[in-house]
Design a protein that fits this description.
Order of helices and strands: HEHEEHEEEEHHH
Shape: globular
Distance between the termini: 32 Å
InterPro entries: MetalloPept_cat_dom_sf (IPR024079), Pept_M10_metallopeptidase (IPR001818), Peptidase_Metallo (IPR006026)
Organism: Methanococcoides cohabitans
Domain Peptidase metallopeptidase: 33-195
Strand content: 15-25%
Keywords: Hydrolase, Membrane, Metal-binding, Metalloprotease, Protease, Transmembrane, Transmembrane helix, Zinc
Oligomer: single chain
CATH superfamily: Collagenase (Catalytic Domain)
Bound molecules: zinc ion
Protein name: M57 family metalloprotease
């Protein structure tokens, strides 16, 4: 068992034993946090600077639609009404970016089309990163995601950024479909426990993000994490 496998195994075990994890039944709708943000509006930055070759300039509009979905009641599972504000600074609460291929760029498992990684401190989100890929292999050929597909993916990830876990109901936007199957990242949000946070940092380090834009961002993020976690 190499280090990475060990970390992932550890995280999965933690996820399974952690109450309220996405593995629970629908009776209690799985939530990472009931009310993750301590302020409103929730600011959103869409990264249109570091874009992959098959990025579509129509994608930001899908984000706007996704924000409206949640502002207008979403899937009915939020206990609060979120208000979003698009901002032009990447110090935003929610950072959204695209990569060409999730598996190649972020080291995610096959079939992962997007993920949301919230950063938790004192039981609240301090920020959440949403990374989407612009397409995936269907059969033998690579296909770019169209706007309808992208909107679904972004809406789902935004749901995580609002504190929701995965639904067992295939009709629910928070049901993880094949395209929306994510890696372990969303499960880490239960965590205010130091051990898990350390595991997160190790996992982040090991996955080795390769995108140039991602790398630059990752350094900024590392500083934030150092500030938050090493006091
Ligand atoms: Zn998900």
């Amino acid at each position: 068992m190499n280090v990475r496998t060990a970390v992932i195994a550890a995280l999965l075990i933690i996820a399974i034993v952690t109450p309220g994890s996405a593995l629970l039944g629908e009776k209690e709708y799985p939530k990472f946090l009931e009310e993750p943000w301590d302020h409103s509006p929730i600011t959103v930055y869409i990264d249109e600077q570091n874009i992959p070759p098959h990025y579509s300039p129509t994608y930001p509009a899908t984000v706007v639609n996704a924000m409206e979905y949640w502002e207008n009641g979403g899937n009915g599972k939020l206990s609060y009404t979120p208000v979003f504000e698009l901002v032009n600074t990447n110090d935003a609460d929610i950072y959204i970016m695209w990569v060409e291929n999730m598996e190649e760029v972020t080291g995610a498992e096959k079939g992962v089309a997007g993920f949301c990684r919230p950063m938790v401190a004192n039981g609240r989100y301090v920020r959440a990163d949403i990374v989407m890929e612009v397409g995936d292999y269907r059969g033998y050929s690579w296909q770019q995601y169209g706007d309808a597909n992208m909107e679904q993916l972004v809406t789902h990830e935004l749901g995580h950024a609002l504190g929701l876990g995965h639904s067992n109901d295939p009709r629910d936007i928070m049901y993880p479909t094949y395209e929306q199957r994510e890696n372990i990242n969303p499960l880490l949000v239960e965590t205010t426990y130091p051990l898990i946070i350390i595991a997160v940092l190790i996992a982040i380090g090991i996955s080795g993000y390769l995108g140039v834009g991602w790398l630059r961002y990752h350094k900024r993020r590392q500083k934030l994490e150092d500030k938050l976690l090493k006091k």
